[in-house]
């Protein structure tokens, strides 16, 4: 059993006499700042001049300053800017203020684990990562519940790092639900593995391959879409709420028998070997290195892959079918990166369905021309990467950028359904 900490294990008083600087006021930032403030802590928010959130944080009654000011004045600095800009923010604006007695905190471990950020040894470095998107962290806090979180200590200079991080976790409400102990290594590697093998990569590849199999066998793409993609949500929701047994309780016996006997034939030993290989590439840093170099080179493969996948038949068929189901309204999701099907322009003279028009209007801008590869440094990029903030990265485009979870955190969608009791 992992070590799990609750309210009795945490003492919020440990942070009440400290100044807590929250860098960023996005999904996580706003929730951490408001929850800590409501718990009687002294909170400052650090943003860049011109941030759209500056005024929002002030209106919420919080003290706002530049990252430099917050790094200078705060004892605890929680970095809740997008992962891909954290190194630059740290190097330019936080590092100069790092000194003994301060704690640097994160909600995702990539930049520490892969040595993009290297804090001096005299500061504490910890992680508190709620296992929910920010709006849920705030909403549950207001309702007196709290969401589970994980805690990790990377550097324990004060010899009190875990206690202070636990106090922070309690301050955002997570000790009510439970704070599970992990390490930066475990959080980062499992996070990447989960999104590559199941949540993003595995699921989309499974759905696409099944769809293609049916279409190639002569079935109608519309029917294939419903069977292999649309209905997935229903099953995943049930697994999310009550586990696999709960899902199986709700499906037909035929479906359940097919599940047990055919599932392992699809996801066979060969797939297990592939998963092991993906994990090995995460653990030995080669995935991180590849992604860092891809960014240094202006992301030519990333943008090409994004376009190629957006042009897939399943997206075109799906856009048309979803137009028949206006209640799905992807544009209304707050958290999930909008997933409009960015389809190629239609050749038909017919007016496009509204959903398709919306999809096109939200199509990510064409990839910027690739700048000449920024002289990939001769040193290992996992220790030398310097990400560039680009406007094209901050739009509501799926993938990398504000509103997405850089190689990392998957954003839950903002389902607010109350938990349903399992029927067994
Ligand atoms: P968001 O993209 O929602 O918010 C980022 C915030 O940082 C915004 O307020 C943004 O400003 C601000 N920002 C951007 N650039 C700078 C800069 N140069 N200087 C100062 N502030 C800047 O991020 P998330 O809340 O999603 O992610 C924050 C961290 O939390 C990441 O490490 C992520 O992996 C982790 N995490 C996220 C979860 C989630 O569900 N979202 C769950 C668990 C962990 P502006 O408002 O102007 O855009
Ligand atoms: Mg993740």
**Which spans have pLDDT < 50 for at least 5 consecutive residues?**
333-378, 383-424
The strand line-up of the biggest sheet is 1-9-8-7-6-5-2-3-4
Number of domains: 2
The tally of strands reads 9
Which band does the percent of strand residues land in? 5-15%
Radius of gyration, in angstroms, nearest whole number = 23 Å
Distance between the termini: 24 Å
Which descriptor suits the 3D outline? globular
Q: What do these coordinates show?
A:
By secondary structure, the protein is of the alpha/beta class. The chain has helices at residues 13-16, 27-38, 54-59, 67-73, 83-94, 110-113, 134-142, 161-171, 184-199, 201-216, 221-230, 232-250, 253-266, 269-283, 286-296, 300-310, 313-322, 354-361, 381-384; strands at 4-5, 19-23, 42-47, 63-66, 76-79, 103-106, 124-130, 149-155, 179-181. The chain contains 19 helices and nine strands. A nine-stranded mixed sheet has the order 1-9-8-7-6-5-2-3-4. α11 crosses α17. The longest helix is centred in the middle third of the chain and has 19 residues, at 232-250. The radius of gyration is 23 Å and the shape is globular. Residues 23-29, 47-48, 51-53, 67, 80-83, 85, 89, 107-108, 129-130, 133-134, 402-403, 405, 408-409, 411 line the site of NADPH dihydro-nicotinamide-adenine-dinucleotide phosphate.
Question: Characteristics of this structure?
Answer:
single chain; 424 residues; alpha/beta; Rossmann fold; 9-stranded mixed sheet; 10% strand; globular; disordered C terminus; binds NADPH dihydro-nicotinamide-adenine-dinucleotide phosphate; binds magnesium ion
